[in-house]
């Protein structure tokens, strides 16, 4: 946490809804009472399946005056474990970074710093079982954010419900809240 600003990185593949997740996280934090928030998408010529980045910065006590991407994240949400094999992503994980990884398997920590916490949630399974899907695959943003809310306490399910209803409408609310609650309740710490 640099100067009271909490920096969060999202590592995903194109189509996994990480850019939307970074924007929603900013809204959730602002609704919870953080005084300043910013979502920073990195959008280029990426195609579905290509590695992408998105970032969110949130602050409880001062304005955010930097709009650059996050280099040393306090938290990192990894939507696909295969991304840990990419040096740029792996190298951005520093000691004390807290990882939230979408995975149903044990996580290979061989090339990761020793002093990190890792949480795991099977967001893919949650989405598939609830049929929260696009043609590109599971819509991972809501379950990942449900799990992130649980491990950080930055926002709760009620705030998620209000923002999701506002952003996606009443019709999509029940399914989105179902996956958010399942992820909130099933996220687990796998390494500390």
How is the topology of this model organized?
Blueprint: E1 5-13, H1 18-32, E2 36-41, E3 51-59, E4 75-78, H2 87-91, E5 98-102, E6 117-121, H3 123-130, E7 133-134, E8 137-138, H4 141-152, H5 157-168, H6 173-186, E9 188-191
Helix pairs in contact: 1-4, 1-5, 3-6, 4-6, 5-6
Describe the structure using short key phrases.
globular, Pyruvate-ferredoxin Oxidoreductase, domain 3, 9 strands, alpha/beta, 192 residues
Please sum up the structure shown.
The protein has helices at about 20-30, 85-90, 125-130, 140-150, 155-170, 175-185; strands at about 5-15, 35-40, 50-60, 75-80, 100, 115-120, 135, 135-140, 190. With about 190 residues, the chain is an alpha/beta fold.
Kindly report how far apart the N and C termini lie.
18 Å
The biggest beta sheet is recorded as: 7 strands, mixed
Q: Can you tell me the overall shape?
A: globular
Alpha-carbon Rg, integer: 15 Å
Helix and strand run = EHEEEHEEHEEHHHE
Order of strands, widest sheet: 2-3-1-4-5-6-9
Low-confidence parts, pLDDT < 50 over ≥5 residues? Answer: none
Helix content: 25-40%
Q: What is the CATH topology assignment?
A: Pyruvate-ferredoxin Oxidoreductase, domain 3
The CATH top-level class label: Alpha Beta
CATH architecture: 3-Layer(aba) Sandwich
Count of DSSP helices?
6
Can you tell me the CATH superfamily? Pyruvate-ferredoxin oxidoreductase, PFOR, domain III
């Amino acid at each position: 946490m640099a100067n009271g600003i909490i920096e969060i990185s999202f590592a995903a593949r194109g189509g996994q809804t990480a850019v939307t997740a970074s924007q929603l996280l900013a809204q959730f934090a602002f609704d919870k009472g953080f005084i300043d928030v910013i979502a920073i998408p990195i959008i280029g010529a990426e195609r579905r399946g290509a590695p992408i980045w998105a970032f969110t910065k949130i602050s409880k006590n001062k304005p955010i005056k930097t709009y650059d991407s996050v280099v040393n994240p306090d938290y990192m949400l990894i939507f696909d474990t295969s991304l840990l094999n990419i040096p740029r992503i792996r190298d951005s994980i520093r000691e004390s970074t807290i990882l939230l990884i979408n995975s149903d398997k044990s996580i290979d920590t061989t090339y990761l710093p020793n002093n990190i916490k890792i949480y795991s949630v099977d967001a893919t399974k949650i989405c598939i079982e609830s049929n929260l899907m696009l043609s590109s695959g599971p819509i991972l943003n809501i379950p990942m954010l449900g799990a992130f809310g649980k491990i950080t306490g930055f926002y709760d399910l009620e705030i998620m419900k209000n923002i999701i209803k506002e952003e996606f409408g009443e019709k999509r609310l029940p399914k989105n809240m179902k996956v958010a609650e399942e992820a909130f309740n099933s996220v687990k710490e796998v390494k500390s």
